[in-house]
């Protein structure tokens, strides 16, 4: 038995010496069921688009898990495990504590409209009809160990489709591709926001006037974008509450994205007053 354990230990050490990657420790995140507010449900029923709302909620619910997983920053807890954890959670004083999970994501649909706009062009004998979908959700990230709200953000989206000579088309008759597109945009936006709040994009390597960023495809980066680069300073603490307000950030340059790979992004340095590895990136204000 001792001999077997010795061989096993030698195998592990050999693997490490050969540079084989060791699985990193990822933060665990639980994702609650996506729900629409009662007001949104009532409005959809009145407008005759309850079916569209149901499809949106189901689509967001399933796609959100994949989008968060695809950030490669979190270990997503299975829904079945989440239900068990919630039963064992400590709910007291309006807060909660969930063991075995680092973060909890709660998403609520707080606006949904699916309607059609039509314009007649009598001189041409044609008409143009637009199906418009408006969707907004609130995403809240909680520290599961304390129940503290870390971030709350609203994600409003609008998407429309245009076709000709469909003035008589009814709501919902047009392609459901729009529903898929808008829910995809929403889930990507939410998952990227989570990753940016908990793990801001960082420079992980630099060679001459190019830097490599720890974000890849589908993480909000696109070729041509310009991002501000910040060096982090000391932690900022609220003198009244003692709560951490994050760390001081000083802008040290700007970079422009030139290419994106599945796991990383490469950018060219535009301005540099101290860009180093570990610096974080923020999108420039529009």
UniProtKB/TrEMBL annotation:
GO cellular component, one term: outer membrane-bounded periplasmic space
Pfam families attached to this UniProt entry: CsgG
Protein name: Curli production assembly/transport component CsgG
